């Protein structure tokens, strides 16, 4: 979205994203209220709703920005492990560790993604961008993924599995150590080169 905005709108958008991150860091999903975000970002509530259709849309936009930053960092410092599976595991573990360092923020972002309404078209577009970015991360880590049998299906399955394991962690259904184990096992089963 930021590419289609004027410089002034981009600055406002950045303030909104930063305010959302700060509120989520402090109190998780429940702490992010549209009125509070608008006040902290110093924008009118109507302006906030012009950019974001809902709280979930706002949090998903933050997650999309985070995923893009992670993809860019991984392109700058790509995984160097031996096999495609090991490189994908390394990339996903690095991404997971960055979320693990901010548990309340991670919980807010993953919760918003998991609770999106199918009627929130703008938020769903943002979610599709996240899935695409995660697929890019996996493809890049696998060195373009061209040697993976059933490449598109495998990458999509790993993407969905990663997001599901994050959800089980942020909801407290399993410890983060189990998330890492599940990722390792699943990737090795799916990418067996």
Task: Please outline the helices and strands.
Layout: H1 7-27, H2 34-41, H3 45-51, H4 55-76, H5 84-100, H6 103-114, H7 121-141, H8 151-170, H9 176-190
β-strand percent reads under 5%
Main sheet overview: none
The low-confidence parts are none
Helix content: over 70%
Task: Supply Rg.
Answer: 17 Å
Number of helices: 9
- Output the CATH class name: Mainly Alpha
Q: How confident is the prediction overall: mean pLDDT?
A: 89
Give the CATH H-level superfamily: Tetracycline Repressor, domain 2
The backbone outline, from C-alpha atoms, is globular
How many domains, in number, for the residues?
1
In the CATH classification, which architecture applies? Orthogonal Bundle
Number of strands: 0
Distance between the termini: 38 Å
CATH fold-level label: Tetracycline Repressor, domain 2
Overall structural class, as computed from helix and strand content, comes to mainly alpha
Q: List the secondary-structure elements in sequence, H or E.
A: HHHHHHHHH
Describe this structure in words.
The chain is mainly alpha-helical and 193 residues long. It has one domain (53-190): Tetracycline Repressor, domain 2, CATH 1.10.357. 74% of the residues lie in helices and 0% in strands. It has nine helices and no strands. Helix 1 (7-27) crosses helix 6, helix 5 (84-100) packs across helix 7 (121-141) and helix 5 packs antiparallel against helix 9 (176-190). It is globular, with a radius of gyration of 17 Å. The model has no long low-confidence stretch (mean pLDDT 89).
